[in-house]
Automatic annotation (TrEMBL):
Domain CMP/dCMP-type deaminase: 4-121
Protein name per Swiss-Prot or TrEMBL: Nucleoside deaminase
Coiled-coil positions: none
Amino acid sequence: MITPADEILLRRAIAVAAHAVAVGDAPYGSLLADSDGTVLVEAHNTVRRDNDIAAHPELKLARWAARELDPDTASRTTMYTSCQPCTMCAGGLVRSGIGRVVYALATEQLVELNPQSGDWPAVAHDGPALFDEASEPVLAYYRPAAGSGADG
């Protein structure tokens, strides 16, 4: 459920998106707030400026949270973002441990406003294959060293 306090921070994320446009970047903005609503960090989309397909604000903030926050603190944060995170960013959010995401525009609404936003080709996938060979480095990494007490 989105609260009035959420709406205030969501408006700030939209303002970050508007700032992105003003400086020539794509219109996407996000911020991460702690459990008290204090903004910890903000970012906007810099994909074109940085020539980096991963420079989405949601992924930037997810990486920041994973690097800078302990898991318990990250789980109590909320990301406010101008648009629903794409699948790339959603994966990063899961791995970051961020506890909640509040977004303004749903992906379907974004595509209605800008049809190119949904125009991504499917990528062919083949596999699994070579299980025995592929499992060796994984097992070597996660298998505790004999007598070292490592837990992987």
